[in-house]
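1st attempt posting a full record on here, be nice pls
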Amino acid sequence: MKILIIDDEPIALKSIRRLLKQRGLRDVKICDNGPEAIDLIKSEPFDVVVLDILMPEVDGLQVLEATKPFQPNVEFIILSAVDDAGSAVKAIRFGAFDYLVKPIDNDRLLITIERAYERRGLRAGLAGSHRHTDRGDIPQAFAGIITRNPRMIELLAYAQIMARGNNPVLITGASGTGKELMAKGIHAASPVADGPFVAVNVSAIPENLFESQVFGHIKGAFTGAAEAYQGLFEQADGGTLFLDEIGELPMSLQAKLLRVIEEQTLCRIGSTQSIPVNVRIVSATNIDIDQALQQGKFRLDLMCRLKSAHIHLPPLEERDEDIALLAEHFRQRACRRYAKSIQGFSAAALELLLNQKWSGNIRSLAQKVEHAVLLVDSDWIEPRHLDRFSPPAPLSRRTLCSLKENHYRHVAYILQHTRNNSAEAAQILGVSVRQVQRLIAQIRQDPGYRFLLNDI
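the predicted structure (as tokens):
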């Protein structure tokens, strides 16, 4: 491993170099100024750069911004004496691996360097691999993901590599892109595949019940606690805990989650006994997490713990070659479910699917195909079977209806035009995100109105 340390303080330079050499890392170079550092990084093949942010002339962020495009495989670790969220967000956006605040624990620095080197090697290996688009290139653990899209094939190869470690993974992407399916694949490809896979929608847990649900409680801990309850962390011990919609977690609870992740121990509500847990964390969100960090709605230290590896799933509109493949998969599944023998899609029906905008991504496509299978009374699915379930009409074109229907249609209309962004919909409707989630659940559970959400 070849390491470059950049700091304008001679004592800091010598101290870090001495620490690394004591741990067997001999190929370490030091530099005390930004301009020289830029020249070094551009001209020499370093694996990891440890970079101080506060330097005269050219600071650490300027060094990072100037060199990362030329050396994309080099991993940068930023050091700063100031715990500044804005600088940290900017550093991560420029491509830094991590942002550490001085004084830094020696063990944490060494672990961060090792993780950075591991990711550098993984990236280099992935970049050198062959990129085919056959189904045979999909790792067995991810066989449930239907794709021939080159970008998706690349993401699955990366996910397969990252799954072998025990580092946390953050999956981002719009609603309906398959984040939970990706999480299950990571679990299946991991060393804890034989352990439990526990999934929880963080946004669906009321704030006052979060600690009880996630960390557990003892009998009599509070009114109604008639029995002891093993929380989700304990249920997932020795396996994977999937935290869906992690971006919706209130700030008041983020510190408590961070503590358990860092210490790998928890206390049930009402108890003082520490319980060790060994859990691999995979989380997912459909919000812009960088924006949430900038706005102070999400803790940077928690995000650093959750985002050791990052996988962003593209929307269906960027996977044109997958639409027909997915539609056929959903047709076969629906035919088995409803005991129907339909041959396939007509050319016109397939053309309709290929040209449609899928605001709800794969979930919308699955619902539309399933409804079409229920409707069809011939050997082929035609456009009329797919057009039957169109998105809700704008308010200006609605007819007279009950207050309940108007309420449900309005919620569906807002969700449609926000691309199922619960936070944005909540802001427009003037309610909380949890209220939006409850409204969605109510509509989906009502047989007379669930069709309103077919394409959302």
